């Protein structure tokens, strides 16, 4: 029986699974300034979050930082990064879509704190499912919270072990953390990357000359002309300093559970995660979809941007011509959240518009990566029909989303997921398509065959890698 757990909704949602966050860190052993590299790294990770952005830099002792609401170019574009953040040979950055914590400036990251060991900056991608339990326990012990971030809980725990080395403090802190986390930390002239024991969120290590970088995705390394070294392992802590790179395994799990939605939607197509090309995985998913759910059609199209690669795979396998059916406004963010459902539905045409010349009188196979609420899919099908499409056949390159995610993706509760309470035939009727087919979970796993990890597929099957029913925790023995 699946756990019946509901979390408080802190904002309205788009008809997508919104991105989590992106983190980037850089350390230059030659002492050169890294703030430009961090900026371009974040720019390459912008798809992972568009609510806020921030950069913290350090000269080895003092940390300078700037963060604000908006895109990376909005936060740093007008005045320039040199006017906002002091030069430093050590820096970390963050782009955010809020999961734990409301969308406010005070919750923008990196989080910079002071403790007995000096200043420390943290940036976090993921979500602690025991955040409220830890926060309440820390409040009982006299800690003061300035944000509603689970990142601040991590910072408080690290501060409680400030008599120890930072490495040992991280090891001890990790024992309290339940959930997903990919962390970059700047402290004591060290850049530290930590990945949770299940490896739910991605994290990788690269190099540019004398500069080492840690990033949520490899595409950010390409943006700074970096060379990918390897993925940081689940449960691994990587410490970069003037002495080089050291690795410590904090905790190893028998089952690695990388979020499979990285390949379905979140990651950029030019990234590689845990040994798998995102582009290849999406193209393969499209080819499998074509074999499993063929259509007698005139044109194959993808919902831009994340479904285009799967649509190309479908076209290649089926032999049906690929063409654009939808034009996208590139100046609208991926999430484009509006405060009212009615406004969200009306705003679909601001983001997407049908290309009548390509679809008029034709039978269209429209490939998308997922259907969450169904509202956007319904509007897109209507747009294609209004543009003259004779038939619209939806093909989805993942299984139906039936369960919420608790590990860093901002999803609706189960009752708001169209796949939770409706059959495929019912969803097809609700969105107004002529036919609708999904990949199965087994099909989707074929698309990522060869990865070093197994996968978290909780949003599809409700089988989560971490038990959601949490026991009470106490810090009395800390």
Describe this structure in words.
Helix 5 packs across helix 6, helix 9 packs across helix 10 and helix 9 crosses helix 17. This protein starts with 20 loop residues before the first strand and ends in a 17-residue tail after the last helix. It has 478 residues and is an alpha+beta fold. Helix content is 28%, strand content 26%.
CATH fold descriptor of the largest domain: Glutamine Phosphoribosylpyrophosphate, subunit 1, domain 1
CA-atom Rg in angstroms: 22 Å
Mean of residue pLDDT values:
88
Q: Which blocks of ≥5 consecutive residues have pLDDT under 50? A: 1-14, 334-341
- By secondary-structure content and strand pairing, the structural class works out as alpha+beta
| Major sheet: arrangement of strands | 3-2-4-1-10-9-11
Question: What characteristic shape results from the CA principal axes?
Answer: globular
Largest sheet: 7 strands, antiparallel
Could you give the count of β-strands?
23
Tell me the fraction of residues in β-strands, as a range.
Answer: 25-35%
* DSSP helical segment count: 18
Q: Terminal Cα separation, in Å?
A: 35 Å
Number of domains: 2
Determine and state the CATH class of the largest domain: Alpha Beta
CATH homology superfamily name of the largest domain: Aminohydrolase, N-terminal nucleophile (Ntn) domain
CATH architecture of the largest domain: 4-Layer Sandwich
* Percent helix: 25-40%
């Amino acid at each position: 029986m699946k756990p019946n757990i509901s979390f408080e909704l802190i904002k309205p949602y788009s008809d997508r699974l919104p991105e989590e966050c992106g983190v980037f860190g850089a350390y230059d052993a030659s002492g050169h300034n890294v703030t430009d590299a961090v900026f371009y790294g974040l720019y390459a990770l912008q798809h992972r979050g568009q609510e806020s952005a921030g950069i913290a830099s350090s000269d080895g002792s003092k940390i300078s930082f700037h963060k604000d609401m908006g895109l990376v170019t909005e936060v740093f574009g007008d005045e320039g990064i040199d006017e906002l953040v002091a030069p430093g040979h050590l820096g970390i950055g963050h782009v955010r879509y809020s999961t734990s914590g409301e969308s406010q400036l005070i919750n923008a990251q990196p989080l910079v704190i002071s403790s007995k060991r000096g200043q420390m900056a943290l940036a976090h991608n993921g979500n602690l499912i025991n955040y409220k339990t830890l926060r309440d326990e820390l409040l009982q012990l006299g800690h003061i919270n300035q944000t509603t971030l689970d990142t601040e809980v991590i910072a408080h725990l690290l501060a409680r072990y400030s008599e120890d080395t930072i490495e040992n403090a991280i090891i001890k802190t990790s024992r309290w953390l339940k959930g997903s986390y990919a962390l970059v930390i700047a402290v004591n002239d060290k850049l530290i990357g930590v990945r949770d024991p299940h490896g739910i969120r991605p994290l990788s290590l690269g190099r540019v000359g004398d500069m080492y970088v840690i990033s949520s995705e490899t595409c950010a390394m390409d943006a700074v002309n970096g060379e990918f070294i390897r993925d940081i392992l689940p449960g691994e802590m990587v410490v970069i300093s003037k002495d080089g790179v050291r690795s410590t395994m904090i905790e190893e799990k028998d089952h690695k559970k990388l979020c499979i939605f990285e390949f379905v939607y979140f990651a950029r197509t030019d990234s590689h995660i845990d040994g798998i090309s995102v582009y290849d995985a999406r193209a393969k998913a499209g080819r499998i979809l074509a074999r499993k759910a063929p259509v007698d059609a005139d044109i194959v199209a993808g919902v831009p941007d994340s479904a285009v690669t799967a649509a190309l795979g479908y076209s290649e396998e089926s032999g049906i011509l690929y063409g654009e059916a939808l034009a996208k406004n590139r100046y609208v963010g991926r999430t484009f959240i509006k405060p009212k459902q009615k406004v969200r539905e009306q705003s679909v045409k601001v983001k997407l518009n049908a290309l009548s010349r390509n679809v008029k009188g034709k039978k269209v196979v429209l490939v998308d990566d997922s259907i969450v609420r169904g509202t956007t899919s319904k509007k897109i099908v209507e747009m294609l029909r209004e543009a003259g499409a004779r038939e619209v056949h939806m093909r989805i390159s993942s299984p139906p989303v039936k369960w919420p995610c608790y590990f860093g993706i901002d999803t609706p509760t189960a009752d708001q997921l169209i796949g939770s309470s409706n059959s495929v035939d019912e969803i097809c009727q609700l969105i107004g398509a002529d036919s609708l087919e999904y990949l199965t979970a087994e099909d989707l796993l074929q698309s990522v065959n060869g990865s070093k990890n197994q996968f978290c597929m909780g949003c599809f099957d409700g089988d989560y890698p971490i038990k959601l029913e949490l026991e009470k925790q106490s810090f009395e023995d800390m």
